[in-house]
Specification:
Blueprint (H helix, E strand, L loop, with lengths): L15 E12 L10 E8 L3 E7 L9 E6 L2 E12 L5 E9 L3 H11 L19
Antiparallel strand pairs: 1-2, 1-4, 2-3, 3-6, 4-5, 5-6
Length: 131
Amino acid sequence: MGGSAPSYERRIGRRLDLEARVIGWHLATAEDVHRPARKAGLVNISVTGAGLLLPTDAGLEIGSELFVELGGVWGAAFIAHARPTRNPELDYCGVSFIGEDPEFADAVAQLIGGPLGPGVRPPPTPYTPLA
C-alpha cells in the first residue's frame, strides 16, 4: 500500500493511544460485507478517526472505504494515509470516520473516555472518492 500522511490534520481533539486491540473490519463492497469480519489492530483513536494495523495484502489504498466495528457497532471510514510497519505483513493506516451514525459516535466516545453528551456529535468528515 502506498501513500503518505497529508500535510494537515482534520482531527478534532487529540489522538488517544490504546493498547492494541483486535476489531472487525470489512471493505465497503457488497461481497465483503457478507463475509465474516476481518481482523485489524486498533492502536489509537480520536473523535474523527483511528489508527489501524491492516494486512498489506488486503488490496487497500488511500481512499479505500471500509466499515470498522467498535464496541459492537459498525461505522464507515476511509483510509486517509498509510505507511509500512516493521512487520512486512501489516501497514499502519490512518482512517477517517464518515457518516453521522449516533450509535457509532457513542462507541467512539466510550473508547476515548465517555459519552459526548446528548445531541453532541463530531462534524461529518468531508469525503470525495478518488475514483
